[in-house]
Amino acid sequence: MANNELKNQASTMSTMDSSNKADDDVEKMETVYDRKLELKSTNDDEVAATPVSENGDGFCSRAWTNALVKVRKPVSKAVVFTSDIAAKNPKTTVILGIGVALVLLAIGIFTNFYVEVDGDILWTPTPSAVLSHGEWLADDSGFPSPPRWFMVTVHADGQNVISLADEGIGRVFKALDVAVNVDGYSEVCKAATITMQDNETGETTCRIHSVTRFWNYTQESFGTQLANGDDVIEAVSALEYPDGTPVDEMQIMGNVERDADGKIVSAQTFIINIAIPEVEDKALDVEEKMLDNLLDLQDQWDVEAGNEFRLEVFGKRSFDDEFNRAIIADIPLVPLIFIVMSLFTCFVFFKRDWVYSRCMLGFGAVCSVLFSIVFGYGLLFIIGVPFTSMTQVVPFVMFGIGLDDAFIIWGAYKRTDHSKTPEERIHITMEEVGVSIFVTTLTSVVAFSLGSTSSIPAVYWLCAYTAPTIALDFVYQITFFVALIVLDERRVAERKRDCCTCFAAPAGQDGATAEDEVEVEELKSEENGLDRFMVWFSDFLMIPAVKVLVLVVFFGMFGGLAYSASLLEQRFEFTDVLPSPSYVG
Predict the structure, then answer these.
(1) What stretches of 125-205 show up as alpha helix (H) in DSSP?
(2) Bridge-partner residues for 20, per DSSP?
(3) Model confidence over 224-270: pLDDT tens digits?
(4) Which of 418, 474, 483, 515 is most exposed, with the fewest beta carbons within 10 Å of its own?
(5) pTM
(6) What dihedral do alpha carbons 463, 467, 472, 475 form, nearest 10°?
(7) How far apart are CA 577 and CA 555, in angstroms?
(8) In angstroms, rounded to a whole number, what is the distance separating the alpha carbons of residues 379 and 401?
């Protein structure tokens, strides 16, 4: 009996010691944390109260410091005030953040949203005399609109097409037949200002420049000449067409060479040029059908056994179509980056505990960036800023900047006193890091705002989207993400599972939650492997020999890269901004 009583007393003493140890650990950490806050507050007060010396000692540095403090205080108060409101009304903040963003996007799409794919507009510096003169010719001059030149080339991968003239010209006839036999072609060509007569119908139609004109555009005449054994090369070497019109060989062949007698001995391409009149949407539709049919023919020739000829095609709408294709092709990348960043943040916020894991909060951090992008896009759509292929870079920039702010806020929040309420901890957090993330946001906004002064529309429209969206992301971080932190803390307090908030996690083995012990473990777990590596790395960098090595390496890199930059050649090719692969490139 006495032994049992002694065992019970020992067990009770052990439990009390364990509890007292946890309490002591919490008290020690709280004391350290309170001391840090006290020192920070004292330092701020001392800096704010430090007068500028009248005798001039340190005058500039102290004046600058006092000026920074005066600027910092109102910014800090504004950030903290905004975050306090979000923390006290988390559900309302989240609902408003989502609702306003989606409403603005919908309004923008159905009002002023449009996609600009015109290469002349996107990449021509403004103001441009070329564009303004072109607009005057098209809108005010009263002159007829120039035709939409549609070009088809038949080549043999650099070989001499004249040596293969019989087959090559036959393929030119085939390509031309595919091009002109589309729905609407004859109707559109009735409005042509540069015309010729159709040999079959006798009606006026679109002018065509091609070697087929030597045979009046009829394949039967060409076939008859071949059957009679006549020299095809002699025919295309003539300086005049059968109707007496002088031949402009640059419009029908490429890289032509003649011998001393004037006979063509070499050419690299056969060319077809078709003058399609500008008839509003009808010309665009006809050109699209021509492109589709010829691109199908191109694919057939590419896989045809024994065929040495290749076909290339280019229309006035080709660049616009390819830019538009680039935009559509890149759309899946936005949800892809959202998924990837969601998985990454879930991994960062994950813990092997049903309650204290924060995967949903990590996902919420990604959502805060997403809704700031949606808000920014909607706002810019409403204003009428064009959407371009360059604008699709914005989400990738935003996820990097926005999540960086979220990690800073969460890291500072974890360092606060766990015994305080989430609202109080948010207040302390934003006092600590609010100004920092505001300054980093401001620098990014200023940088992209300066980019908006570029004379190239594609560049300044990109910057016009990015600058306000970065500012909006800052607002979402100090409101939307802050609200999510408070809601997640409430979930933890109610012991609901991460990602499955409808279910409560089971209590500990003793039937209760040892809250103090959990707080201690959370604080201890903050020093992970990466933290230990960074401490080791910083100590390593402080070794004198390493300092010298770092300076030598970086000066060497600077010199090498400066030399490389001096070799840079400035040029711009439209094909460089096209999607790959592209039939235009």
Answers:
(1) 129-139, 165-180, 185-189
(2) none
(3) 877 665 678 888 888 988 888 898 989 999 999 998 888 899 999 99
(4) 515
(5) 0.72
(6) 160
(7) 34
(8) 20
